[in-house]
Design brief:
With about 450 residues, this protein is α+β, with helices and mostly antiparallel strands. Helix content is about 30%, strand content about 20%. The chain binds adenosine-5'-diphosphate and magnesium ion.
């Protein structure tokens, strides 16, 4: 017996509005579009954030393979259909729309696929139209109606340009033309630069075969930030550890690559030490760097394996997983967070014991004046500078380029978690405490606020 189904189409107005609140922050939203460019085999992505009051806009232009008109219409669909490879960065068929419309209320995508002919197709999602019609309708955009720079870009190369206009979520509703909004956009740009330098560092440094990428932000080339300071002679790399994860439809290894970074006195220069500190500074940057298909999803923190600890701040561990394990890692749509599968927690904990010992001793010896060269654990090897992976020095704006004073950090010890008496009141301390008491859902927001407080107050 066959049943006659009754199709119940969701209300466009309400659903599209609620999908704005999936939890994207500005840098993560842009990063989701860079994922799409990488997947389209782009070698260059140009991001322009231009301030012009309420007419400010963000543009992300790539030289990837572009889309035909029908590809583009499919791409604009919520839940776009396509086959995914095991190493693809995309997943839900949502990112282009949800990431964009979490920040703006008009999304235009223009694309050219034919390398031999300048043939541009463009469509937009416009909230005003959805508000007026309550329909899941995109609007075609005539080529002449596109910004001249968009046409310029697509005249020179096949590829795709994504344009965000009416940046209500980025600038705030009340005074999008005010000084406050302008400054806010500048802060956002700085955060974006740090974020992209970090999450795509393997692509930017040419470490991912066949996927070398350059990203320009307002014409400045983004320099990769290597969380493991591999160009420092005193950085210690421990042996990789493979841990098998068995999920319903896959048996795949997760690879841990543990590093112990040099203590302050063993760094080649104070600048190199400050640069290695990272966007959230030494204490918060200890922990896992979780990569899905070489794209970083999470940076720092021990994912519940243990608490942050001043003595372990030199320990940083790359954890690589394949998209085949998405179910086990419970990746979310904004790709801002994953869960470490319960089945591997014990093995990961055990594998990290020698890392913690080494990090602890590096921390203790590094605190003394640098008299002797630090001896390393026999099971470790010291990394040598490698030109392909070594980030070049940044002149300014590098993640962690702000000065830090380690002595101002509280000692966070799991055996003594609530001892507030030893804590001096600094932004660093407050940040650390807030991070410790945050629930998992709150953590990304809290971390964002802490980062903003740092850039605002210049600590
Ligand atoms: N910059 C781009 N270049 C070429 N194709 C793109 C680009 N951005 C998006 N697409 C196409 O649109 C589809 C939908 O993108 P998206 O909504 O981000 O979902 P997902 O990446 O999870 O598939 C992608 O699968 C891809 O086919
Ligand atoms: Mg995508």
């Amino acid at each position: 017996m066959s049943l006659n189904g009754v199709e119940v189409i969701p209300g466009a107005r309400r659903l599209i509005r609620s999908l704005r609140d999936m939890g994207y922050e500005f840098p993560a939203a842009v990063a989701d579009l860079v994922d799409n460019s990488i997947e389209a085999k782009a070698s260059v992505v140009r991001i322009d954030v231009s301030w012009n009051g309420e007419h400010s806009h963000v543009q992300i232009a790539d030289n990837g393979k572009g889309m035909t008109a029908s590809d583009l219409r499919e791409a604009m669909r919520y839940g776009a259909e396509r086959e995914y490879d095991t190493e693809d960065l995309g997943k839900f068929g949502l990112g282009l729309k949800t990431a964009s419309l979490s920040q703006c209320s008009k999304l235009t995508v223009a694309s050219r696929w034919n390398p031999n002919r300048v043939d541009i197709n463009a469509y937009c999602w416009d909230f005003d139209h959805i508000e007026a019609t309550n329909r899941w309708e995109i609007l075609p955009v005539a080529s002449q109606a596109l910004h001249p720079e968009v046409r310029e870009h697509l005249k020179e190369t096949a590829g795709t340009v994504v344009i965000w206009e009416r940046l209500d979520r980025v600038l705030g509703y009340k005074r999008p033309d005010g000084e406050h909004a302008r400054k806010h956009l500048m802060v956002m740009c700085r955060e974006l630069e740090e974020h992209l330098a970090m999450v795509f560092h393997r692509f930017l440094a040419g470490e991912v075969r066949g996927k070398k990428l350059s990203i320009y932000l307002n014409n400045n080339k983004i320099v990769p930030w290597d969380p493991f300071a591999r160009s420092e002679a005193a950085t210690q790399k421990l042996d990789d550890v493979a841990i098998r994860v068995e999920s319903e439809n896959a048996k795949t290894d997760v690879i841990l690559e543990p590093f112990v970074l040099p203590a302050q006195s063993k760094f080649s220069s104070p600048e190199a030490h400050a640069r290695a500190s990272g966007p959230r500074k030494w204490n918060l940057q200890q922990g896992f760097y979780i990569y899905r298909a070489d794209r970083m999803i999470q940076s720092g923190g021990w994912s519940g394996i243990r608490t942050l600890d001043e003595h372990l701040k030199l320990a940083r561990v790359a954890l690589n997983f394949s998209p085949r394990l998405d179910e086990a890692f419970k990746i979310n749509v904004p790709k801002m967070r994953v869960n470490l599968p319960a089945s591997i927690r014990d093995d990961v904990s055990k594998a990290l014991a020698p890392v913690f010992r080494l990090a602890n001793s590096a921390y203790r010896t590094g605190e003394k004046p640098a008299t002797s060269s630090g001896r390393t654990n026999p099971t470790t090897r010291t990394s040598s500078p490698s030109p392909s992976s070594a980030p070049t020095a940044r002149s300014n704006g590098a993640p962690g380029s702000a000065d830090i004073t380690d002595s101002s950090l509280p000692v966070v010890n799991s055996a003594n978690p609530g001892n507030g008496s030893s804590i001096s009141v600094s932004l660093e301390d407050v940040g650390l405490l807030l991070e410790r008491i945050s629930l998992p859902d709150e953590l990304p927001i809290v971390q964002r606020v802490i980062a903003r407080a740092r850039s605002t107050y210049g600590t």
